[in-house]
Design a protein that fits this description.
It comes from Iris pallida. Disulfide bonds join 79-89, 94-101, 154-215, 162-178, 182-191, 192-202. Keywords: Disulfide bond, Signal. Pfam families: Thaumatin. The protein folds into 2 domains: 3-154, Sandwich (Thaumatin), CATH 2.60.110.10; 158-214, no CATH class. The protein has 3 helices and 14 strands. It has helices spanning 181-185, 188-191, 206-214; strands at residues 3-8, 11-17, 21-28, 35-40, 63-66, 70-76, 80-81, 87-88, 112-116, 125-129, 138-144, 152-154, 167-169, 175-178. The longest helix has 9 residues, at 206-214.
């Protein structure tokens, strides 16, 4: 039986699970335009859409992923094209200068939606990750298929509670993203490396608990 995976940010992605492929459909519930981006991982092929514009309340055309696809998706915000024709975004920017991400990932802070299709035991795995910080609320839910596929997500606006040290602001002074402590401070302690590179030495910080408490 097929399964629908609904990735909800304030922006949603719906996944239709087929026998040989999975179809993603994006819906933007934000009160502003977003620009979804996709990036394949490992030896997976790029999707037919690696970046596109999606207006407020709009639903995308379906995007099909082949069997075994591994990758991530995210939403870019505050995007515009400058006088020279270069496209860029306030959050999640791919750095390609165009709407398509073309194999580039989103710059942090950004809320990530991650997938491994037909993984271990032929199962699909998905999660909403804040390892690269946060830019928009997001969640994933599943319809159909088999197994107990629960909702994964972060429906909370962490930007509204982001500490000053972690805030990413746009040119107008609005908080548009919340950085991870590793991104903000780049220390071994916050990045869990060096002497802090083991589970016993890499302890939760007051900053990481902001994300954990908001979106366990």
């Amino acid at each position: 039986m097929g399964a629908y995976f609904n990735l909800i940010l304030v922006f949603n992605i719906f996944l239709l699970k087929g026998v040989t492929s999975t179809t993603f459909t994006f819906k933007n519930n934000c009160p502003f335009t977003v620009w979804p981006g996709t990036l394949q991982g490992g030896s997976s092929s790029p999707l037919s859409q690696t970046g596109f514009e999606l207006g407020n309340g709009a639903t995308s055309t379906p995007v099909t992923a082949p069997m075994g696809w591994v990758g991530r998706m995210w939403a870019r915000t505050g995007c515009a094209t400058d006088a020279s024709g270069r496209f860029s975004c306030e959050t999640g920017d791919c750095g390609t200068g165009v709407v398509s991400c073309n194999g580039a990932g989103g710059a942090p802070p950004v809320t990530l939606l991650e997938f491994t299709l037909q993984g271990d035991g032929g199962k699909d795995f998905y999660d909403t990750s804040l390892v690269d910080g946060f830019n928009l609320p997001a969640s994933i839910s599943v319809q159909g298929g088999s197994g107990d596929c629960k909702t994964s997500g972060c429906p909370v606006d962490i930007n509204a509670r982001c500490p000053a040290q972690l805030q990413l602001k746009n040119g107008g002074g609005a908080v548009v993203g919340c950085k991870s402590a590793c991104e903000a401070f780049n220390t071994d302690e916050y990045c869990c490396r060096g002497a802090f590179g083991t589970p016993s030495t890499c302890k939760p910080s007051s900053f990481s608990m902001i994300f954990k408490n908001a979106c366990p």
